[in-house]
Amino acid sequence: MESPKRKIIILMLSLLAAVSCSTTRVLPEGTYRLAKNTVEIKGDKSKKKDLSVSDIEQYIKQSPNKYFIFGWNPFLNVYNWSSGKGSGWDRFVEKIGTAPVRFDPSLVESSKENIASHLVYLGFYGSVVKDSVIYKKQRAYVRYEVFPGKRFPIKSITYDIKDSLMLSLALADTAKALVKKGDYLNEASLESESQRFNSIYRRNGYYDFSKNYVFFEADTTLVKDSALLRVSIENHPRGGQLSDSIRHNRYHIGKVRIKHDPEMKIRQDMLLRLNLIKPGDLYNEEVINNTYSRYSGVRLFAGVNINTRKAGENIVDCDISLSRSKIQGMKVNLEASTNSSGLFGISPSLSYYNKNIFRGGEWFTLSFMGNFQFKFNDPIRSNELGISAGISFPKFLFLPDRLFHGAIPRSDLNLSYNYQSRPEYTRNIISTSFGYNWNTGGKFYYTLSPVQLNIIRLFNLDPDFYDDLSNNPYLQSAYQNHFDLGLGGTIYYTTDNSVNPKNSYFYSRLQFDIAGNFLSLFNPLMPVDGNGSHMIWNTPYSQFVRAELSFVRTWFFGKQGKHSLAARVLGGIGYSYGNSSAMPFEKQFYSGGASSLRGWQSKAVGPGMSRMNENFVIPNQTGDFRLEANIEYRFRIFWKIAGAVFMDAGNIWNLRSSTENDPGTLRGKDFFKSLAWNWGAGIRLDLDFVLLRLDMGVRIYDPARTAWVNPSAWFGPDTFALHFGVGYPF
Fold first, then answer.
1. Hey, CA dihedral for 220, 222, 226, 231, is it positive or negative?
2. Structural contact between residues 123 and 188, judged by C-beta atoms closer than 8 angstroms
């Protein structure tokens, strides 16, 4: 009998064969698919070092189809399933697939001209670009050989600025110059330098100034193989006439008006506090931009517009217009899952928000959540209820606003209560935190909470359950009353901060917690319990570090970005020390669920190769270490309906154990055997404002059995799970 592993391999090869038909079958005879462009930079190594193949490729006018991996794009194959009859089937595969790029030889010559022009822009004069085309099996392979031309180092730079004040401003900023003596002459750097001059003068009162008043003149004949550069500021713009000349004067701020919808109830002192544009001040474009960032950062207005206009000799008036946005609303989220054993899980949440609760841009949120796991016709179940409230102030408490030139960090105060009732115990968690959040450049977002407090109390602890854990004191120590006091934070980076990105993007998130170190300074003053733990109010405090890091990349391709490939890698680790022998249970990691290993329900996999802990009637598997990778292909089917196929791999592990050869402990020799694998498919309803998702995950490899799952058993008992969710899993 064939092994399950072999059957899986055969199935995968069969699927691969299904999409491995020709990628050129639909092309008319005598035409070719552009298979590849190759760029090779020849000549001097120093020149090659300063040129990028990827940069040059952007100036080639015809690009081949994009490939996923190892030069393969399955949607090219799908498109070629067309019969050429124009039937409904043809329209279907052409909509799902990707049409081959038909090679156009006429675009090769214009691409060479494009590349040569770009090389001049980069400072390579007299460059040569050669091409060759190889035709093979109705495919065209184009090769571009680039021979960079001569470069001229700048021997000297002189400034011809007749206005003494403008000259002094320019000379005072030469340390930040983007064109310096010894650099190679090139238009790209000169354009950046003209932008720098524009910024200098518009920060210092020159309201009418633009980069077009900056002129560059280079002499490459006076000194052999070198350039003498002259920089001048003229009264007429580039391409203009002398009759277009103006006098470069400095302007001051006149009247400043702040306008907003009268129905928007907001305190005037808050609006004035955010404004940095003051009457009588010298006009400064940077102050204008910073004021815009401060009003936008409050996220209270649908639009922020700052309009400036001349209002007399050397005077600029300013109007700040703030349009009303939706101040309050509700958000609903729901996740649900079930598996082949009949266990259901439902996790609803409801939250209310008000972005102007005290009429000063204060955000108030009130949230309710639940998590219910049960089986029909079975009295045993797990219930979790939570409530949280938070308020965020548009200021950095304890520091004056004048220290922040752009958007002001917000100060956050949060309080929550969580109630958990399980067959084994009842647990109450009270949490509070205080901290700050801010962003820089619209790409980096930070949260820092210098104070985080969690108080955990257990009630109705089943004696049999606790005794059953006695053979593993490490696990048993996680189930006790405790509290932790520490700090935490989050660093988030994204290349696209829009709500629904339309282009390929990347984001990463680092979250960390540190607890107990401050309290440990007072250990000599604290009583000690029977386990040697120091206590406050007859309760031991927790001491640990915890961090979780994730990377997510999403690629869009095909017509109007109807296809995308998303991949995620994440890892987390927690380590207890000092006053704690184990990580607090609520701070441990878990896998499985609608946004994790979708072949398992939440907390139903791991740690490591451990089987389901029979002490838990409802799954509750956790660990100190988590590692996971996910890949998902998403595609539009029709209307608002989209589909997805995915694969997930990963698990959780314990870093320490009280028992020998614990299958849940992370060990290098067993690492690959302890990875859980699943594949799956899903269907999504994308309503633009919300995405509803239904995914089915099927186990390929179950580490608890250390065995591959036979394809014939993929939809059998305890081998798959269904998940309903709102939004993408990552």
1. negative
2. yes
How many Å from the N-terminal Cα to the C-terminal Cα in the chain?
39
With left for phi above 0 and alpha for psi between -120 and 50, is residue 220 left, alpha or beta? alpha
472's CB contacts (< 8 A; 6+ apart) are 657, 658, 659, 662
Burial letters 132-141, b for 16+ CB under 10 A, else e: eeeeeebbbb
Q: Which long-range contacts (CB under 8 A, 24 or more apart) does 192-200 make?
A: 193/231, 197/170, 197/233, 199/285, 199/286, 200/169, 200/170, 200/173
Please list, residue by residue across 219-248, b when 16 or more beta carbons sit within 10 angstroms of its beta carbon and e when fewer do.
ebeeeeebbbbebebbeebeeeeeeeeeeb
Contacts of 584 (CB under 8 A, 6+ apart): 454, 456, 478, 482, 484, 542, 544, 576
Task: Show the tokens assigned to 620.
Answer: 């509750």
Which has the closest alpha carbon to 199: 224, 178, 218, 182? Answer: 178
Eight-state DSSP code of residue 190 = H
Rounded-to-integer distance, Cα 149 and Cα 119, Å: 8
Given a contact cutoff of 8 angstroms between Cβ atoms, the answer to whether 653 and 666 are in contact is: yes
The phi and psi torsions of 564 (rounded to 5 degrees) equal: -150, 155
Sheet holding 252-260, edge to edge: 252-260, 315-324, 301-310
- CB-based burial label for 535 (10 Å; 0-12, 13-18, 19+): middle
User: What sign for the dihedral angle of Cα 528, 529, 534, 539?
Assistant: negative
pLDDT of residue 604: 92
Q: What is the DSSP letter of 16?
A: H
Tell me the angle at which helices 187-202 and 106-121 cross, rounded to the nearest 10 degrees: 50
Amino acid (one-letter) located at 383: N
Bridge partners (DSSP) of residue 228 are 156, 219
Q: What is the SS3 assignment for 287?
A: helix
pLDDT in tens, 168-219: 999 999 999 999 999 999 999 999 999 999 999 999 999 999 999 999 999 9
d(CA 729, CA 591): 13
Residues in the chain: 730
Residue 673: other Cβ atoms inside 10 A = 14
Q: How many Cβ atoms from other residues are within 10 Å of residue 379's Cβ?
A: 7
Query: What tokens appear for 183 in the block?
Result: 């650099």
Amino acid (one-letter) located at 533:
S
Angle between helices 187-202 and 285-297 (to 10 degrees): 80
Give me the residues of the chain with pLDDT under 70, please.
1-21, 68-71, 469-476, 478, 559-560, 658
Cα(207)–Cα(249) distance, rounded to whole angstroms?
8
Dihedral (CA of 308, 310, 312, 316) sign: positive
Which two three-digit tokens encode residue 638?
């029709």
Tokens, residue 383: 């219930």
Does the reported pTM lie above 0.70?
yes
242/26 Cα distance (integer angstroms): 60
Q: Which two tokens stand for residue 25?
A: 């079958």
pLDDT at 1: 44
C-alpha distances in Å from residue 465, one per residue of 201, 425, 456: 74, 9, 19
For residue 488, give both structure tokens.
């935490």
Angle of helix 164-172 relative to helix 187-202, nearest 10 degrees, comes to 120
